[in-house]
Amino acid sequence: MKRTLSILIVLLFCLSVFVGCDNALSQNAGSQTTNTECEHNWERIGNLNESTARDRCTICGETRLYTDPDSINKPKDEIAGMKGIRVWDWHHPDDSERNPEWAITFASIPNIEFKRENSSVYANDELLIGGSGYACMSFYTAELTVTNKTLLCFGMSLGSGICDERIVIMDFDTKQELFAIHDRMNYDYQLFVRNGILCVREMKYGTNEITRTGIFYDEGTKIQILWDEHIVLDEDRDQVQTGQPIS
Hints:
By secondary structure, this protein is mainly β. It is built from one helix and 16 strands.
């Protein structure tokens, strides 16, 4: 009799714990989905990759895909893209016959010779970007809309055998990366110019299937992408950056 009573007490205790846990889970599930009343305060999480960056609400913890707060409520026709000029691009039809190892100088960056050698880019013979398994696929310049400062924009390929294409935008004076976008094994990114504006095309990894296009714009030194509502394939032709000779 005592043994039976002990077993019954244990079973009742286990049942009460199970019901309590179930109720707690239900309450937690409800708290995760009932955020319609929260006045969200979004804060960006993580990296510079526009495809994977996310926002997190500092109040309720809810997350979403990153949304640029400077452009979310601004009409698209009020966002001025950054002026861009192609220097050299492995993918561009006008560059297909050009020597991929070249040298050039710019009036806006005096006394500096940029050259591509062994798939890397050098400034006065000092490595600027590249190295083993990190190849320059394109080189563009762009201007910050507020200061007209010239930025260096590179399309880079990372890896040996399994490669992804990514974009890096650099301030030459500080050697600082102001912007980078990459999503290895998911998407490739390439630069191009449309109507004189620096643009980006996103493609499914390892294919030529374009998933979206957009323009680069800046707020001061903060560089963002404004994605097109629809894919736009137009690309400027024969607008190579002027400078001392590119060979």
